[in-house]
Specification:
431 residues; binds nicotinamide-adenine-dinucleotide; Dihydrodipicolinate Reductase, domain 2
Protein backbone atom coordinates (compact mmCIF):
# COMPACT_ATOMS: atom_id res chain seq x y z
CA UNK A 1 0.00 0.00 0.00
CA UNK A 2 1.22 3.49 -0.87
CA UNK A 3 0.84 5.52 2.28
CA UNK A 4 1.19 9.24 2.38
CA UNK A 5 2.66 10.08 5.77
CA UNK A 6 0.16 12.88 6.19
CA UNK A 7 -2.82 10.48 6.17
CA UNK A 8 -3.36 9.11 9.64
CA UNK A 9 -3.70 5.29 9.68
CA UNK A 10 -7.17 3.76 10.09
CA UNK A 11 -6.32 2.41 13.53
CA UNK A 12 -8.94 1.26 16.02
CA UNK A 13 -12.69 1.01 15.72
CA UNK A 14 -14.88 3.21 13.55
CA UNK A 15 -18.33 3.94 14.99
CA UNK A 16 -20.97 4.44 12.30
CA UNK A 17 -23.96 6.18 13.83
CA UNK A 18 -26.92 6.07 11.48
CA UNK A 19 -29.82 8.47 11.77
CA UNK A 20 -32.85 6.34 10.82
CA UNK A 21 -31.02 3.15 11.81
CA UNK A 22 -34.27 1.16 11.53
CA UNK A 23 -34.93 2.19 7.93
CA UNK A 24 -34.71 0.19 4.72
CA UNK A 25 -31.37 1.61 3.53
CA UNK A 26 -29.78 1.44 7.00
CA UNK A 27 -30.74 -2.15 7.79
CA UNK A 28 -29.66 -3.23 4.29
CA UNK A 29 -26.32 -1.47 4.76
CA UNK A 30 -25.73 -2.97 8.20
CA UNK A 31 -26.79 -6.52 7.27
CA UNK A 32 -24.63 -6.29 4.15
CA UNK A 33 -21.52 -5.23 6.05
CA UNK A 34 -22.03 -7.89 8.74
CA UNK A 35 -22.55 -10.71 6.21
CA UNK A 36 -19.69 -9.54 3.97
CA UNK A 37 -17.20 -9.48 6.80
CA UNK A 38 -18.19 -13.02 7.73
CA UNK A 39 -17.50 -14.07 4.14
CA UNK A 40 -21.12 -14.96 3.29
CA UNK A 41 -21.56 -12.26 0.62
CA UNK A 42 -19.51 -10.08 -1.74
CA UNK A 43 -19.51 -6.24 -1.55
CA UNK A 44 -21.15 -5.80 -4.96
CA UNK A 45 -21.69 -2.16 -5.90
CA UNK A 46 -19.11 -0.77 -3.48
CA UNK A 47 -16.34 1.39 -4.91
CA UNK A 48 -14.23 1.27 -1.74
CA UNK A 49 -14.36 -2.53 -1.61
CA UNK A 50 -14.13 -3.48 -5.30
CA UNK A 51 -13.04 -0.65 -7.64
CA UNK A 52 -9.59 -0.30 -9.15
CA UNK A 53 -7.80 2.65 -10.74
CA UNK A 54 -4.57 3.23 -12.62
CA UNK A 55 -1.53 4.69 -10.96
CA UNK A 56 1.04 7.02 -12.53
CA UNK A 57 3.16 4.11 -13.78
CA UNK A 58 0.14 2.47 -15.44
CA UNK A 59 -0.30 -0.22 -12.80
CA UNK A 60 -3.92 -0.92 -11.85
CA UNK A 61 -4.62 -1.20 -8.14
CA UNK A 62 -7.63 -1.58 -5.87
CA UNK A 63 -8.54 1.70 -4.21
CA UNK A 64 -8.40 0.00 -0.82
CA UNK A 65 -4.76 -0.89 -1.56
CA UNK A 66 -3.91 2.71 -2.48
CA UNK A 67 -5.32 4.59 0.52
CA UNK A 68 -5.75 3.39 4.12
CA UNK A 69 -9.50 2.83 4.46
CA UNK A 70 -11.14 1.52 7.62
CA UNK A 71 -11.62 -2.26 7.52
CA UNK A 72 -15.20 -3.54 7.59
CA UNK A 73 -14.18 -5.63 10.62
CA UNK A 74 -13.47 -2.43 12.55
CA UNK A 75 -16.93 -0.90 12.04
CA UNK A 76 -19.39 -0.72 14.96
CA UNK A 77 -22.94 0.30 14.07
CA UNK A 78 -25.41 2.27 16.16
CA UNK A 79 -27.86 5.08 15.61
CA UNK A 80 -31.21 6.68 16.25
CA UNK A 81 -34.78 5.98 15.18
CA UNK A 82 -38.27 6.96 16.25
CA UNK A 83 -39.31 3.31 16.19
CA UNK A 84 -37.71 1.25 18.99
CA UNK A 85 -37.26 -2.07 17.12
CA UNK A 86 -33.78 -3.55 16.95
CA UNK A 87 -32.07 -3.80 13.55
CA UNK A 88 -33.23 -7.40 12.99
CA UNK A 89 -36.93 -6.63 13.56
CA UNK A 90 -36.64 -3.36 11.63
CA UNK A 91 -35.08 -5.22 8.69
CA UNK A 92 -37.91 -7.77 8.76
CA UNK A 93 -40.37 -4.85 8.62
CA UNK A 94 -38.52 -3.21 5.72
CA UNK A 95 -38.80 -6.45 3.68
CA UNK A 96 -35.79 -5.65 1.53
CA UNK A 97 -33.74 -8.70 2.46
CA UNK A 98 -34.82 -12.31 2.82
CA UNK A 99 -35.18 -13.71 6.32
CA UNK A 100 -32.58 -16.38 5.55
CA UNK A 101 -30.02 -13.64 4.83
CA UNK A 102 -30.92 -11.72 7.99
CA UNK A 103 -30.55 -14.93 10.00
CA UNK A 104 -26.89 -15.20 8.98
CA UNK A 105 -26.17 -12.31 11.37
CA UNK A 106 -29.30 -12.39 13.53
CA UNK A 107 -27.57 -12.01 16.91
CA UNK A 108 -25.52 -9.04 15.79
CA UNK A 109 -28.54 -7.33 14.26
CA UNK A 110 -30.58 -7.93 17.40
CA UNK A 111 -27.87 -6.28 19.47
CA UNK A 112 -28.28 -2.98 17.58
CA UNK A 113 -31.07 -0.98 19.19
CA UNK A 114 -31.77 2.62 18.31
CA UNK A 115 -31.25 5.56 20.62
CA UNK A 116 -34.26 7.88 20.89
CA UNK A 117 -34.70 10.14 17.87
CA UNK A 118 -34.43 13.90 17.65
CA UNK A 119 -37.70 14.40 15.81
CA UNK A 120 -40.36 16.96 15.05
CA UNK A 121 -43.60 15.68 13.57
CA UNK A 122 -43.99 18.85 11.51
CA UNK A 123 -41.00 17.80 9.42
CA UNK A 124 -42.43 14.37 8.46
CA UNK A 125 -46.17 14.24 9.08
CA UNK A 126 -46.59 10.66 7.90
CA UNK A 127 -44.37 9.34 10.69
CA UNK A 128 -45.87 8.59 14.09
CA UNK A 129 -43.09 6.93 16.07
CA UNK A 130 -42.87 7.45 19.82
CA UNK A 131 -39.22 6.60 20.53
CA UNK A 132 -38.45 10.30 20.58
CA UNK A 133 -36.40 12.66 22.77
CA UNK A 134 -38.13 15.32 24.85
CA UNK A 135 -36.33 18.53 23.99
CA UNK A 136 -37.02 21.96 25.44
CA UNK A 137 -35.31 23.70 22.50
CA UNK A 138 -33.39 22.85 19.34
CA UNK A 139 -30.22 23.67 21.28
CA UNK A 140 -31.23 21.11 23.90
CA UNK A 141 -31.74 18.64 21.01
CA UNK A 142 -28.15 19.29 19.92
CA UNK A 143 -26.84 18.81 23.48
CA UNK A 144 -28.65 15.48 23.86
CA UNK A 145 -27.34 14.24 20.49
CA UNK A 146 -23.80 15.26 21.39
CA UNK A 147 -24.09 13.29 24.62
CA UNK A 148 -25.36 10.25 22.62
CA UNK A 149 -22.32 10.42 20.31
CA UNK A 150 -19.90 10.71 23.22
CA UNK A 151 -21.49 7.84 25.19
CA UNK A 152 -21.59 5.58 22.13
CA UNK A 153 -17.93 6.25 21.45
CA UNK A 154 -16.90 5.38 24.99
CA UNK A 155 -19.20 2.35 25.38
CA UNK A 156 -18.01 0.84 22.09
CA UNK A 157 -14.33 1.77 22.40
CA UNK A 158 -14.39 3.69 19.12
CA UNK A 159 -11.46 5.78 17.99
CA UNK A 160 -13.52 7.67 15.44
CA UNK A 161 -17.19 8.19 14.57
CA UNK A 162 -18.99 9.05 11.33
CA UNK A 163 -22.64 10.13 11.44
CA UNK A 164 -24.75 9.12 8.43
CA UNK A 165 -28.25 10.49 7.74
CA UNK A 166 -30.28 7.65 6.19
CA UNK A 167 -33.54 8.86 7.74
CA UNK A 168 -36.69 10.10 6.06
CA UNK A 169 -36.73 13.15 3.81
CA UNK A 170 -37.85 16.21 5.74
CA UNK A 171 -40.21 18.86 4.40
CA UNK A 172 -38.82 21.43 1.99
CA UNK A 173 -37.02 24.21 3.82
CA UNK A 174 -35.78 27.24 1.87
CA UNK A 175 -32.48 28.77 2.89
CA UNK A 176 -33.01 31.76 5.18
CA UNK A 177 -30.82 34.31 6.95
CA UNK A 178 -30.57 32.08 10.04
CA UNK A 179 -28.64 29.60 7.88
CA UNK A 180 -26.08 32.05 6.56
CA UNK A 181 -23.62 32.26 9.47
CA UNK A 182 -22.71 30.00 12.35
CA UNK A 183 -23.59 32.72 14.87
CA UNK A 184 -27.07 33.16 13.34
CA UNK A 185 -27.63 29.39 13.26
CA UNK A 186 -26.65 28.94 16.91
CA UNK A 187 -28.84 31.89 17.91
CA UNK A 188 -31.84 30.36 16.11
CA UNK A 189 -31.19 27.01 17.83
CA UNK A 190 -30.99 28.66 21.24
CA UNK A 191 -34.13 30.72 20.57
CA UNK A 192 -35.86 27.50 19.49
CA UNK A 193 -36.82 28.78 16.07
CA UNK A 194 -38.39 25.49 14.98
CA UNK A 195 -39.58 26.91 11.66
CA UNK A 196 -36.05 27.22 10.28
CA UNK A 197 -34.06 24.65 12.31
CA UNK A 198 -34.85 21.14 11.14
CA UNK A 199 -34.03 18.18 13.42
CA UNK A 200 -31.53 17.03 10.77
CA UNK A 201 -29.60 20.26 11.37
CA UNK A 202 -29.29 19.33 15.04
CA UNK A 203 -27.80 15.94 14.11
CA UNK A 204 -25.35 17.61 11.71
CA UNK A 205 -24.37 20.27 14.23
CA UNK A 206 -23.89 17.65 16.97
CA UNK A 207 -21.73 15.47 14.72
CA UNK A 208 -19.50 18.35 13.63
CA UNK A 209 -19.22 19.60 17.22
CA UNK A 210 -18.04 16.13 18.26
CA UNK A 211 -15.47 16.03 15.44
CA UNK A 212 -17.39 13.39 13.46
CA UNK A 213 -17.77 13.63 9.64
CA UNK A 214 -21.43 13.99 8.66
CA UNK A 215 -22.93 12.37 5.54
CA UNK A 216 -26.33 13.46 4.22
CA UNK A 217 -28.11 10.67 2.33
CA UNK A 218 -31.43 12.49 1.83
CA UNK A 219 -32.06 15.78 -0.01
CA UNK A 220 -32.75 17.80 3.18
CA UNK A 221 -31.25 21.29 3.39
CA UNK A 222 -29.57 20.26 6.68
CA UNK A 223 -25.81 20.58 6.33
CA UNK A 224 -26.01 22.30 2.94
CA UNK A 225 -25.97 25.85 4.31
CA UNK A 226 -23.15 28.40 4.74
CA UNK A 227 -23.41 28.20 8.54
CA UNK A 228 -22.62 24.47 8.52
CA UNK A 229 -19.85 24.87 5.93
CA UNK A 230 -18.31 27.46 8.25
CA UNK A 231 -18.67 25.18 11.28
CA UNK A 232 -17.21 22.15 9.44
CA UNK A 233 -14.15 24.18 8.44
CA UNK A 234 -13.75 25.59 11.92
CA UNK A 235 -13.85 22.10 13.43
CA UNK A 236 -11.77 20.49 10.63
CA UNK A 237 -14.53 18.03 9.85
CA UNK A 238 -15.59 16.74 6.39
CA UNK A 239 -19.24 16.93 5.35
CA UNK A 240 -20.68 15.09 2.34
CA UNK A 241 -23.97 14.75 0.47
CA UNK A 242 -26.74 15.15 -0.51
CA UNK A 243 -29.18 12.40 -1.52
CA UNK A 244 -27.80 9.00 -2.54
CA UNK A 245 -27.60 8.74 -6.34
CA UNK A 246 -29.03 5.25 -6.54
CA UNK A 247 -31.37 4.58 -9.51
CA UNK A 248 -33.19 6.87 -11.88
CA UNK A 249 -30.81 9.81 -11.43
CA UNK A 250 -27.84 7.49 -11.88
CA UNK A 251 -29.26 6.60 -15.31
CA UNK A 252 -29.83 10.28 -16.11
CA UNK A 253 -26.28 11.26 -15.29
CA UNK A 254 -25.04 8.58 -17.68
CA UNK A 255 -27.48 9.16 -20.55
CA UNK A 256 -27.42 12.98 -20.57
CA UNK A 257 -23.60 13.16 -21.03
CA UNK A 258 -23.99 10.71 -23.93
CA UNK A 259 -26.53 13.00 -25.67
CA UNK A 260 -24.27 15.97 -25.16
CA UNK A 261 -21.11 14.20 -26.29
CA UNK A 262 -22.92 13.11 -29.49
CA UNK A 263 -24.53 16.60 -29.93
CA UNK A 264 -28.01 15.06 -30.04
CA UNK A 265 -30.90 17.33 -29.05
CA UNK A 266 -33.36 16.70 -26.20
CA UNK A 267 -36.90 18.10 -26.20
CA UNK A 268 -38.39 16.30 -23.21
CA UNK A 269 -37.60 14.00 -20.32
CA UNK A 270 -40.44 12.50 -18.33
CA UNK A 271 -39.49 10.42 -15.30
CA UNK A 272 -41.98 8.63 -13.12
CA UNK A 273 -41.79 5.78 -10.67
CA UNK A 274 -43.78 3.68 -8.25
CA UNK A 275 -42.45 2.92 -4.80
CA UNK A 276 -44.14 1.31 -1.81
CA UNK A 277 -41.79 1.52 1.15
CA UNK A 278 -41.88 3.97 4.07
CA UNK A 279 -39.72 6.39 2.10
CA UNK A 280 -42.40 6.39 -0.63
CA UNK A 281 -45.07 7.01 1.99
CA UNK A 282 -43.20 10.02 3.45
CA UNK A 283 -42.61 11.38 -0.06
CA UNK A 284 -46.33 11.08 -0.77
CA UNK A 285 -46.70 14.20 1.38
CA UNK A 286 -46.34 17.18 -1.03
CA UNK A 287 -44.06 19.24 1.29
CA UNK A 288 -41.66 16.28 1.58
CA UNK A 289 -41.82 15.47 -2.15
CA UNK A 290 -40.85 19.07 -2.95
CA UNK A 291 -37.45 18.49 -1.28
CA UNK A 292 -36.88 15.41 -3.47
CA UNK A 293 -38.18 17.10 -6.61
CA UNK A 294 -35.75 20.00 -6.27
CA UNK A 295 -32.96 17.48 -5.83
CA UNK A 296 -33.92 15.50 -8.93
CA UNK A 297 -34.72 18.37 -11.29
CA UNK A 298 -31.41 20.24 -11.43
CA UNK A 299 -29.46 17.33 -12.93
CA UNK A 300 -30.36 17.60 -16.62
CA UNK A 301 -29.88 21.35 -17.07
CA UNK A 302 -26.55 21.20 -15.32
CA UNK A 303 -25.25 18.49 -17.66
CA UNK A 304 -26.80 19.69 -20.93
CA UNK A 305 -25.92 23.39 -20.46
CA UNK A 306 -28.82 24.91 -22.47
CA UNK A 307 -27.23 28.37 -22.32
CA UNK A 308 -24.24 27.02 -24.28
CA UNK A 309 -26.26 24.82 -26.66
CA UNK A 310 -29.65 26.53 -27.09
CA UNK A 311 -30.37 24.74 -30.41
CA UNK A 312 -30.05 21.36 -28.72
CA UNK A 313 -31.24 21.91 -25.15
CA UNK A 314 -32.88 25.34 -25.06
CA UNK A 315 -36.38 23.93 -24.60
CA UNK A 316 -36.28 20.69 -22.59
CA UNK A 317 -39.54 19.79 -20.83
CA UNK A 318 -38.46 17.95 -17.68
CA UNK A 319 -40.92 16.36 -15.27
CA UNK A 320 -40.32 14.05 -12.31
CA UNK A 321 -43.00 12.08 -10.45
CA UNK A 322 -42.85 9.70 -7.50
CA UNK A 323 -46.00 7.69 -6.85
CA UNK A 324 -46.58 5.88 -3.57
CA UNK A 325 -47.77 2.37 -4.45
CA UNK A 326 -47.64 0.03 -1.41
CA UNK A 327 -47.65 -3.38 -3.18
CA UNK A 328 -44.18 -2.73 -4.62
CA UNK A 329 -42.54 -2.07 -1.25
CA UNK A 330 -38.81 -1.39 -1.79
CA UNK A 331 -38.81 -2.77 -5.35
CA UNK A 332 -39.20 0.51 -7.16
CA UNK A 333 -40.08 0.55 -10.85
CA UNK A 334 -38.96 3.61 -12.78
CA UNK A 335 -39.92 4.70 -16.28
CA UNK A 336 -38.19 7.36 -18.31
CA UNK A 337 -39.43 8.60 -21.64
CA UNK A 338 -36.81 10.72 -23.36
CA UNK A 339 -37.69 12.64 -26.50
CA UNK A 340 -34.52 13.34 -28.44
CA UNK A 341 -33.86 14.68 -31.92
CA UNK A 342 -31.11 14.21 -34.48
CA UNK A 343 -29.95 15.22 -37.95
CA UNK A 344 -32.33 17.79 -39.50
CA UNK A 345 -34.34 17.81 -36.27
CA UNK A 346 -35.93 14.38 -36.78
CA UNK A 347 -37.43 13.10 -33.48
CA UNK A 348 -36.66 9.81 -31.74
CA UNK A 349 -37.71 8.29 -28.42
CA UNK A 350 -35.87 6.32 -25.78
CA UNK A 351 -37.73 4.35 -23.10
CA UNK A 352 -36.00 3.19 -19.97
CA UNK A 353 -37.77 0.80 -17.62
CA UNK A 354 -35.62 0.20 -14.53
CA UNK A 355 -36.93 -2.44 -12.15
CA UNK A 356 -34.56 -1.72 -9.34
CA UNK A 357 -34.23 -2.41 -5.66
CA UNK A 358 -33.81 0.94 -4.02
CA UNK A 359 -31.99 -0.06 -0.87
CA UNK A 360 -29.81 -2.64 -2.64
CA UNK A 361 -28.50 0.23 -4.77
CA UNK A 362 -28.24 2.74 -1.92
CA UNK A 363 -26.50 0.57 0.72
CA UNK A 364 -23.05 0.39 -0.95
CA UNK A 365 -23.23 4.12 -1.68
CA UNK A 366 -23.83 4.78 2.02
CA UNK A 367 -20.88 2.54 2.94
CA UNK A 368 -18.57 4.27 0.46
CA UNK A 369 -19.58 7.74 1.64
CA UNK A 370 -18.89 6.74 5.24
CA UNK A 371 -15.49 5.17 4.53
CA UNK A 372 -14.34 7.97 2.22
CA UNK A 373 -15.46 10.64 4.71
CA UNK A 374 -13.48 8.91 7.44
CA UNK A 375 -10.49 8.75 5.08
CA UNK A 376 -10.85 12.45 4.21
CA UNK A 377 -10.90 13.30 7.92
CA UNK A 378 -7.69 11.37 8.55
CA UNK A 379 -6.16 13.06 5.48
CA UNK A 380 -6.83 16.46 7.08
CA UNK A 381 -9.60 17.47 4.67
CA UNK A 382 -12.59 19.43 5.92
CA UNK A 383 -15.76 21.20 4.77
CA UNK A 384 -17.73 20.09 1.69
CA UNK A 385 -16.23 17.02 0.03
CA UNK A 386 -17.04 17.79 -3.61
CA UNK A 387 -15.04 14.77 -4.78
CA UNK A 388 -17.81 12.60 -3.30
CA UNK A 389 -20.36 14.10 -5.74
CA UNK A 390 -20.13 10.75 -7.58
CA UNK A 391 -22.41 9.23 -4.94
CA UNK A 392 -24.94 12.07 -4.73
CA UNK A 393 -28.03 13.17 -6.60
CA UNK A 394 -27.68 16.73 -5.42
CA UNK A 395 -23.96 17.29 -4.79
CA UNK A 396 -23.15 19.97 -2.26
CA UNK A 397 -21.15 22.93 -3.51
CA UNK A 398 -20.34 26.38 -2.18
CA UNK A 399 -21.94 29.56 -3.52
CA UNK A 400 -19.09 30.25 -5.99
CA UNK A 401 -19.19 26.88 -7.77
CA UNK A 402 -21.65 24.83 -9.79
CA UNK A 403 -22.27 21.20 -8.87
CA UNK A 404 -20.94 18.49 -11.18
CA UNK A 405 -23.53 15.87 -12.17
CA UNK A 406 -21.92 13.98 -15.06
CA UNK A 407 -21.07 10.56 -13.58
CA UNK A 408 -17.86 10.21 -15.60
CA UNK A 409 -16.55 13.63 -14.58
CA UNK A 410 -17.48 12.77 -11.00
CA UNK A 411 -15.54 9.51 -11.24
CA UNK A 412 -12.48 11.44 -12.44
CA UNK A 413 -12.86 13.69 -9.36
CA UNK A 414 -12.75 10.63 -7.08
CA UNK A 415 -9.63 9.30 -8.77
CA UNK A 416 -7.91 12.69 -8.86
CA UNK A 417 -8.48 13.19 -5.13
CA UNK A 418 -7.16 9.74 -4.29
CA UNK A 419 -4.08 10.35 -6.44
CA UNK A 420 -3.51 13.70 -4.75
CA UNK A 421 -3.76 12.09 -1.34
CA UNK A 422 -0.85 9.80 -2.14
CA UNK A 423 1.14 12.33 -4.17
CA UNK A 424 0.56 10.78 -7.61
CA UNK A 425 -0.51 12.34 -10.91
CA UNK A 426 -2.71 10.81 -13.61
CA UNK A 427 -1.07 8.38 -16.06
CA UNK A 428 -0.16 10.12 -19.30
CA UNK A 429 -2.31 7.88 -21.51
CA UNK A 430 -6.01 7.05 -21.26
CA UNK A 431 -7.09 7.25 -17.60
N1 LIG B 1 -33.20 3.98 -1.22
C1 LIG B 1 -32.69 4.81 -2.09
O1 LIG B 1 -32.35 4.44 -3.20
C2 LIG B 1 -32.50 6.23 -1.72
C3 LIG B 1 -31.88 7.07 -2.62
C4 LIG B 1 -31.67 8.40 -2.27
C5 LIG B 1 -32.06 8.87 -1.05
N2 LIG B 1 -32.70 8.04 -0.20
C6 LIG B 1 -33.14 8.62 1.06
O2 LIG B 1 -32.63 7.87 2.13
C7 LIG B 1 -33.52 8.00 3.23
C8 LIG B 1 -33.82 6.61 3.77
O3 LIG B 1 -34.56 5.85 2.85
P1 LIG B 1 -35.26 4.51 3.33
O4 LIG B 1 -35.84 3.87 2.12
O5 LIG B 1 -34.35 3.73 4.18
O6 LIG B 1 -36.44 5.11 4.22
P2 LIG B 1 -37.18 4.43 5.45
O7 LIG B 1 -38.46 5.18 5.59
O8 LIG B 1 -37.24 2.95 5.33
O9 LIG B 1 -36.22 4.75 6.68
C9 LIG B 1 -36.11 6.00 7.26
C10 LIG B 1 -36.01 5.81 8.75
O10 LIG B 1 -35.72 7.09 9.32
C11 LIG B 1 -36.40 7.18 10.55
N3 LIG B 1 -36.44 8.60 10.89
C12 LIG B 1 -37.14 9.60 10.30
N4 LIG B 1 -36.88 10.79 10.87
C13 LIG B 1 -35.96 10.54 11.84
C14 LIG B 1 -35.28 11.34 12.77
N5 LIG B 1 -35.49 12.68 12.83
N6 LIG B 1 -34.40 10.75 13.61
C15 LIG B 1 -34.19 9.43 13.58
N7 LIG B 1 -34.81 8.60 12.72
C16 LIG B 1 -35.67 9.16 11.85
C17 LIG B 1 -37.73 6.53 10.26
O11 LIG B 1 -38.37 6.14 11.43
C18 LIG B 1 -37.30 5.34 9.40
O12 LIG B 1 -37.02 4.19 10.18
C19 LIG B 1 -34.74 8.74 2.70
O13 LIG B 1 -34.65 10.09 3.03
C20 LIG B 1 -34.63 8.57 1.22
O14 LIG B 1 -35.27 9.60 0.50
C21 LIG B 1 -32.92 6.73 -0.48
Amino acid sequence: MIINKSIKPAQGRLGVLVVGVGGAVSTTLITGVLTIRKGFKKPVGSITQMATMRMQDGEEKRIKDIVPLAELDDIVFGGWDLFPENAYDAALYAEVLKEKDLNLVKDELQSISPMTAAFDHNFAKRLNGTHVKQCATRWDMVEQLREDIRSFKVANHCDRVVVLWAASTEIYLPMSEEHMTLAALEKAMKENNTAVIAPSMCYAYAAIAEGAPFVMGAPNLCVDIPAMWEFAKQMNVPIAGKDFKSGQTLMKTVLAPMFKTRMLGVSGWFSTNILGNRDGEVLDQPENFKTKEVSKLSVIDNILEPEKFPDLYGDVYHKVRINYYPPRKDNKEAWDNIDIFGWMGYPMEIKVNFLCRDSILAAPIALDLVLFSDLAHRAGMCGIQTWLSFFCKSPMHDLEHQPVHDLFTQWRMVKETIRNMVGETAPSYLD
